[in-house]
Amino acid sequence: MVANKTKTAKQAGEKTVEGSNNGKSELGITAKKDPDFSEWYPQVIQKAEMIEYGPVSGCMVIRPYAYSIWESVQSFLDNQFKKSGVQNAYFPMLIPESFLKKEQEHVKGFTPEVAWVTEHGDTKFEERLAIRPTSETIMYDSYKKWIRSYRDLPLRLNQWCNIVRWEFKHPVPFLRTREFLWQEGHTVFATKEEAMAETIEILDIYARAFEELYAVPVLKGRKTDTEKFAGAVYTNSLEIFMPNGRAIQGGTTHLLGQNFAKAFDITFLDKDGKKQYPWQNSWGFSTRSIGIMVAMHGDDKGLVLPPRIAPIQVVIVPIIFSNTPTVNEKILELAKSIKKELKTIRVELDEREEYSPGFKFNYWELKGVPLRIEIGPKDLEKNNIVIVRRDTGVKESIPVSDATIRVIKLLADVQDNLYNKAKKLLNDSIVKAGSLSELKEIIDHGKVAFVPWCGSDECEAKVKDETGAKSLNILFNQPELKSNCFCGCGRKAEKMIYFAKSY
Amino acid sequence: MVANKTKTAKQAGEKTVEGSNNGKSELGITAKKDPDFSEWYPQVIQKAEMIEYGPVSGCMVIRPYAYSIWESVQSFLDNQFKKSGVQNAYFPMLIPESFLKKEQEHVKGFTPEVAWVTEHGDTKFEERLAIRPTSETIMYDSYKKWIRSYRDLPLRLNQWCNIVRWEFKHPVPFLRTREFLWQEGHTVFATKEEAMAETIEILDIYARAFEELYAVPVLKGRKTDTEKFAGAVYTNSLEIFMPNGRAIQGGTTHLLGQNFAKAFDITFLDKDGKKQYPWQNSWGFSTRSIGIMVAMHGDDKGLVLPPRIAPIQVVIVPIIFSNTPTVNEKILELAKSIKKELKTIRVELDEREEYSPGFKFNYWELKGVPLRIEIGPKDLEKNNIVIVRRDTGVKESIPVSDATIRVIKLLADVQDNLYNKAKKLLNDSIVKAGSLSELKEIIDHGKVAFVPWCGSDECEAKVKDETGAKSLNILFNQPELKSNCFCGCGRKAEKMIYFAKSY
User: Fold this and answer.
1) Hey, which end of chain B has fewer CB within 10 Å, N or C?
2) Cα A20 to the chain's mean position, in Å?
């Protein structure tokens, strides 16, 4: 074993912003999103008070402004799962090493990344305990005890928890961290058909979270055998292509088949009294999704949040001058009455006296608040307010009496606009290619190559070797193909598949 | 270091019930709550499908039937915290050893119970990482970065998470486990007064969760210096006295004073521009509360759940005989229409054909469902239903048309009755004593001794040495005392204090 210092975030080269002090000093983002994404991203999430780096590299603090987004998404997913018949539970975090070893592919996939608990107080454990990198093995040990007959099926449980995977790659907050939060669903069915149907049902729920809440369009499809989950028969995934030219996996559902049932001796008596192995799935969705949303919509001024998940949907900034106290009072009164009227909406009134309106505009733009309402002396005179959209910067002046109806309409417009913009980017980024050289050019231009593929591991591996790009996934609904494999192997193409540089 | 085998639940002597198989075999509880509480409790929580033992001693599975109770309580607490201005966040679980050592009392209190992460993959960490036994040290490292001026205060954060404390005492599910779930609030104020007020505000919220949701009465008060949280100025607690004659701590709020601020160098500039140390609190409420509720209300038939947290509040059991198919159809029709009508209530219709009504009665009694509705052929004839209370066993026959209004009334009655019964038990269990010998007798009878105390550590220690009982807490509102200390030390009594055997 090699001794290895526990690096702090800074030692590990993570981008710590000095003086991020509640985002109040060095307010602005000093890097352009394009072409300096790798500078821009850590600045935005720190200055907008989404994260703080912790003392252990790869383990970050999720601050309230980001955590509240997670709560919105959790609440949506949790409702959908419950509607579908899934129940929540909680399983122990510490897994004996022997459990991880029970499923051969699984242990190969996860062991290099496991953080091990070896001591308590001054006492050594005889067997190392893994901090869960995923919970198949600990959950299925219990499932074995609970499943006896077809009447116990389906068993569909979910847990919300933290996960630790000690990846060697450079940590990036949200997108790739060593500790993260997620939900993991683990379900057991009597038949393969039911299990397969659930991998689609849940993937659709994940897709709705991305598309309807985060305003992020996804590519739905099947992973190749090379890229599937360790221990699965197949993996379905959502892939997102980010404006920095990198793809990332957004959520996955795995058909585990009977692999784990056999490894953990889970059996049931069917209606005819015959012993059978059941069919299992697992599926997960994590805090990574927050980072994807930030990367997708943010701009050079900071975050741009979709209204459905924005902790603050509207900020009201009174424009106040020190020499007009009676006018100020009336402006504040109006601001308060508008806040009160917008009661179904998450509104913040920024009454802070120590900051100028200009400072506040920048501050709330950095925080990505979808709409800003300005009320100044002239607006007061005309009984108007000004509304400014964060996504387009477009300003409009409207009568106070129209406030509620206009705000509701604009919030819906911002949500749609962010999705449509992202969808256009995705469509423009996908380029068909017929040959390896065309594929290389597309990858070099930071786009997604969409190619006909024979289905062989070798042709897939060639892309990784020669370009560094990985396969994303394979469309569920395939067109009829007449061409040969992009790779020049001479075989007939069987499926269209996406390749891109990715996280 | 002593090698120590990772014991399985069974090896550690935990009470595993064989064949707990979904509670469907060996249905009944085979131990009496009194006097066999230590047999009864593990049987109830397993057979009612609340928990499953995991492979690592002290780390248990929280099954959906118990987890859903936790979700109800979480939702109540979370709403109350948010109303009070607290925000949720998430901090890393792994804490460098050097952090734990920064506050002297704190490290002494927690180090013996810490589970240490020492390796990832095949690589040793240079510094051991603690799995959080509580998060003061990791959170305050960030707080230091965020707090600069009085304008940044108060800072009031909470996190819902898992905790690991490798206690040496015999683990008991919920009541004392090595991994558990909780929330921990960590707040920072400019003044001591604000901090002190919050320790009461939050304790009151905890008390409401116990009294209004779990129907469990509490003793509110101040811990002695001997029993306070490691690193705190003082600890306020809720103490619950369980029917097995043991007290247990139900929730605590700690005034940390400026101890951690000094250890972690957290300072702020006050309105006059002077550098000050802020005042801090921490407070926590855990899944232990579920076990307390089970112990309080359960009986020889199984769980008895207070309606407000019962996952199923009403179960409808159709009484069906195999020789009357057309009657059966009508009974099921009526059962379904009643279920539909009770839409604001959590109702389950037990349509299972493979079990007799008698089996179902036992099954749902074991599960503690507050009300059972029976519908048989005779009820159908009279257009009546039978309602049976789980808490008293009292049956009544009412017209179908009164179902909703009666069910709502009875659920409220069950909730009240459980609380009142528990409250009476508590009142009957508290016995005043004036001397150590009287105190001993009270403790020997498994009751709570309420005694005048001089406030000295020695007199408190004497009780522990001679009886094994610990002090619970000191009433906030003290009567005027004229007697001397119970202990015979000759000093004047200053406070009334509770002593009892406890977890």
Assistant:
1) N
2) 24
ipTM: 0.94
- B322 alpha carbon, distance to own chain's centre: 45
Q: Which residues of chain A lie closer than 8 angstroms to B173, CB-CB?
A: none
Q: Of A300, A204, A245, A214, which Cα lies nearest the Cα of A428?
A: A245
Please check the confidence at residue A9 and state whether its pLDDT lies above 50: no
Q: Pick from B5, B118, B129: which is nearest to A56 by CB?
A: B129
| B-proximal residues of A, 149-178, CB under 8 Å | 151-152, 157, 161-162, 164, 166
- Window 7-66 of B: residues touching A by CB (8 A cutoff) are 20-22, 52, 54-56, 59-64
What phi and psi values does residue B91 have, to the nearest 5 degrees?
Answer: -110, 155
CB-based contact B353:B328 (threshold 8 Å): no
Q: Looking at chain B, which residue has its C-alpha nearest residue A67?
A: B89
Nearest to A120 among B5, B94, B114 (CB): B114
CB contact under 8 A, A87 and B67: yes
Q: Which residue from B118, B145, B181 is facing A119, i.e. has the nearest CB?
A: B118
Question: How many angstroms away from the CA of A448 is the closest CA of chain B?
Answer: 33
pLDDT higher than threshold 50 for residue B440: yes
Chain B interface mutation, best of A4, A14, A20, A56, highest count of B Cβ atoms under 10 Å: A56
> Residue A284, class by beta-carbon neighbours within 10 Å (0-12 exposed, 13-18 middle, 19+ buried)?
buried
* Residue numbers in A near B68 (CB within 8 A): 87-88
End-to-end distance of chain A based on CA atoms, in angstroms? 28
Chain B touched by A112 (CB under 8 Å)? yes
The answer to whether the CB of B224 falls within 8 A of the CB of B460 is yes
CA B257 to chain centre: 26
Nearest partner of B250 among B282, B203, B310, judged by Cα = B203
Name the residue among A162, A191, A351, A91 with its Cα closest to residue B160: A162
The 10s digit of each residue's pLDDT in A125-159 is: 999 999 999 999 999 999 999 999 999 999 999 99
Query: Distance from A40 to chain B by nearest Cα, in Å?
Result: 21
- Rounded mean pLDDT of B90-94? 98
Report the alpha-carbon distance of residue B251 to residue A220 in Å, rounded.
46
d(CA A101, CA A104): 6
Q: Which residues contact B346 (CB under 8 A, 6 or more apart)?
A: B310, B311, B312, B313, B314
Closest approach of B357 to chain A, Cα-based (Å): 18
| Kind and range of the H or E run holding B141 | helix B136-146
Looking up tokens 């959950």 gives A139
Residues 120-149 of A with CB under 8 A from B: 120-129, 131, 138, 141-142, 145-146, 148
Instruction: Please tell me the distance from the alpha carbon of residue B235 to that of residue B225, in angstroms, as a whole number.
Output: 8
Nearest residue in chain B measured CA to CA from A60: B92
Give the pLDDT confidence score for residue A24 in this predicted structure.
42
pLDDT tens, position by position, A79-125: 999 999 999 999 999 999 999 988 888 888 888 899 999 999 989 99
- CA B295, B297, B299 angle in degrees (round to 5)? 90
Q: What is the dihedral of CA B210, B211, B212, B213, to 10 degrees?
A: 30
Q: Where are the alpha helices (DSSP H) in A367-468?
A: 377-382, 403-429, 436-444, 457-467
Yes or no: say if A285 and A209 are a contact pair by the CB < 8 Å rule: yes
> Is A111–B121 a contact, with Cβ atoms under 8 angstroms apart?
yes
What pTM, to 2 d.p., does this model score?
Answer: 0.94
Least CB–CB distance from A6: residue in B61, B116, B127: B127
Write out pLDDT tens, residues B14-50.
554 443 444 344 578 999 999 999 999 999 999 999 9
What pLDDT, in 10s, does the model give residues B291-310?
999 999 999 999 999 999 99
